[in-house]
Amino acid sequence: MTSAEVVVEPSEELPIARVSGEIDMANAAEVAAQLGAAVSNAAHGLVVDLGAVGYVDSAGLRGLLDLGVRLRRRGQRLVAVLPVESPLRRVLEVVQMDRVADVCATEEDARARMA
Amino acid sequence: MTDAGDLAWPQPAARLRALTALTAALADALTLVDVGEVVVGATVTALGAGAGTLALLDPDGETLLIARASTFDAAVFGAERIPLDTPTPTAEAVRSNRPVLLPDRETVLDRFPGLAGRLVGFHGSRAAIPLEVGGRAIGAYGLTFSAPRDFSADEVDFMLALARPCAQALERARLFAAERTMQLRLAFLAEASRVLAESLDGEELLRRLTTLVVPQLADWCAVDLGEGEAARRVAEVGETDDPDGAVVLALSARHRRLGAMRIAGARAHRGTVEELARRAALALDNARLYRQEHEAAETLQRSLLPSHLPDLPGVEVCAAYQPGSTALEVGGDWYDVFPLPGGRVGLVIGDVVGRGLRAAAAMGQLRSAVRAYALEDWAPAAVLEHLNALTKATDQGDMATLIYATFDPHSAELRFASAGHPPPLVVAPDGTARFLEGGRSVPTGVVSDTGYEEATTTLGPGATLVLYTDPLIERRGSTLDAGMETLARAAAEVPSLDTSALRDHLLRRQPPNAEDDVAVLAFRPLARTGPEFAADVPADPTELAGVRHRLRHWLEEAGATPDEVHDVLLACGEACANVVEHAYGPADASFVVSARLEGDTVEVDVRDTGRWRAPRGSERGHGLGLMRALMDDVAVTPSEEGTEVRLRRRLGGVRV
């Protein structure tokens, strides 16, 4: 069974959700729900750190893309954090994640982007 | 008292005629045999004797040779060869240099009692007259008369008068023969020396020696090398009934006994044979010394080369150094293979310009230096730059050409830099051969602070990299281009051979010039193979993680890099997700995931037995897009039995 863990560092302005494990069609909806719940109305947006994710398939990506669209509609922003050398980077490019989210290399970059 | 067999004792006028006739006959006689015949014949005739003998003193001064004798006389008075101190009338005449006159049987028995047994039927008289030259007897002639006779002073004078021209003629003939013999001997020995000098192979030399001896000097000749128990016959020519009775001559040179030459039925002067043996022994010893030096040089060269190549996973490599067949001096050719960090391999081929110990020593230093820089993990061009700087800084001054290459089995990338060395040859599995012309710069040790070029190429599984030194492409009367073409053709002929067979094929097809040594290195990445991956997977989302886990393990075993593992897993995961989502109804069903390596390409099949429902909306669009983006090739084949998705991704290759 595919497993992923989402740990949220709560913040009024900019919560950070750190995801680890794998995301596929078996748990994509659950991960997406946990991420959506991490964002309050007051927040500028959500930082999702995918640095510890080893695998994310199109179902998982769909969840992220949907989240990005939903946040944008609400005037909030989604920032994905992914190290430059991660093989997931190319995957994000293929699905054009940058249309709905910023992609940063580190959480510091993400915070700076949102400041 | 005149015996019927003897003619009348000649009168003065007849004596003069006889003397004149003898002198005339002697003038025409040149050889000892001719002279001997004249002497015996003429004296017997002139003095009316029954038989005559001619005895000549051997140059050794101790033996008498019976040069000419009538049959009767030889049987009675002498053998072919008798010691000078034998008590016979002729020997006595030579010893005393005075005539020996024996008027009757009694006198003979009185003075030479030892002859008693041989005087059966002899009742006559005998005279032996010395043949004198320069106050010394060089021989004697003997006359046998069938009746007793007193020799008068007048008769003795006549016999001495006949002896004088005979002695002179004999001496002349002897000198002539000696000179002729000496000439022949010198000519023979000169020819022998020439023939012996033509070979530096000891046994071949001895075979030639025997053919010089037989048939010119003897009937049979055999040569043994070594002594005693260890003696070994290396050559034998001719025939003999009595090999044990052969003359044995030691083959000794520089105070070492090398063997022995045996001769039977010798016709030559012993001195000639001894001189021949002496020269042969010297030539043999020279050959031995040459071989020793050559072997020492070769041993040195080999000691500077790797004693064995490392056994590296996933690649096949072999090399050979072939010394020049006749060159005494060592060359500076070398090769090297060593593992580098990250599973990479370092490959070197080089040639120090020049020959001899200096070149070999320089080669040893360069080899160590290349290894040292390479293990610090400098790139090929940087290694050459360091090497050049080192050469110039240490003032070794030795120019060298070399190629340093690194190969990464994961990426199949070959990086190489050439310092004026002939270009590497790459033979593809299908036999297509090409030279790698890039990455060329000047030899090391020529210019200070020069930069070195570097080039890269992909060396796929089964392709062979051939590194070599010039003799493999340099042939007399042929251009370098033609030589390279020939090499490429030779290599392309046998693409399926393993590297050592290819190496041997190249060395054999292109025999290097006799003087030159040559080094060849053949390197080939092996096709990665392994067991096929297969999994029967229930069509349920919760099963996908388990398949991924097992396929990840298989891909890692197959040598895929982490990025490659990720990409293949994701593409396969998308294919599996499609099956789970679209192929089956709610009933239990399963599908098959299989994977295999085809050369350097991993091939994954995902097969189901259901019929895909049409995708709902555009939601699944990213699945196929991801597969296409991550794989080199994606093929979806629907059929009555189900659908097969085949994914292909080359490992270690450059992504296009």
Q: What's the helical proportion of residues of chain A? A: 25-40%
Number of strands of chain A: 5
Biggest β-sheet of chain A, characterized?
5 strands, mixed
Distance between the termini of chain A: 39 Å
What is the average of the pLDDT values of chain A? Answer: 92
Largest sheet of chain B: 6 strands, antiparallel
Q: How far apart are the first and last residues' alpha carbons of chain B, in Å?
A: 135 Å
Mean pLDDT of chain B: 83
Structural class of chain B: alpha+beta
Instruction: Give the SSE string of chain A.
Output: EEHEHEHEH
The strand line-up of the biggest sheet of chain B is: 3-2-1-6-5-4
Total helical elements of chain A: 4
Gross geometry of chain A: globular
Strand content of chain A: 25-35%
Query: Greatest contact pair?
Result: A-B, 20 and 24 residues
Task: Enumerate the spans of chain A where pLDDT stays under 50 for 5 or more consecutive residues.
Answer: none
From the alpha carbons, calculate the radius of gyration of chain B and give it in angstroms: 49 Å
Quaternary arrangement of the chains shown? heterodimer
Strand elements of chain B, count: 26
Low-confidence stretches of chain B: 1-7, 74-78
**What would you call the shape of chain B?**
rod-shaped
Give the helix/strand layout.
The complex is a heterodimer of chains A (115) and B (656).
Chain A lengths: L3 E6 L6 E8 L4 H10 L7 E12 L1 H16 L3 E5 L6 H7 L6 E4 L2 H8 L1
Parallel strand pairs in A: 2-3, 3-4, 4-5
Antiparallel strand pairs in A: 1-2
Chain B lengths: L11 H17 L3 H16 L3 E7 L5 E7 L1 H7 L3 E3 L5 H8 L3 E3 L2 H7 L13 E9 L2 E10 L7 H45 L4 H12 L6 E6 L6 E7 L8 E7 L2 E9 L5 H35 L10 E8 L10 E7 L5 E8 L3 H20 L4 H14 L6 E9 L4 E7 L5 E3 L5 E3 L4 E2 L13 E4 L5 E5 L11 H14 L5 H11 L8 E8 L7 E6 L5 H14 L4 H21 L7 E9 L2 E8 L12 H10 L2 E7 L2 E9 L6
Parallel strand pairs in B: 15-18
Antiparallel strand pairs in B: 1-2, 1-6, 2-3, 4-5, 5-6, 7-8, 7-10, 9-10, 11-21, 12-13, 13-14, 14-15, 15-19, 16-17, 16-20, 20-21, 22-23, 23-24, 24-26, 25-26
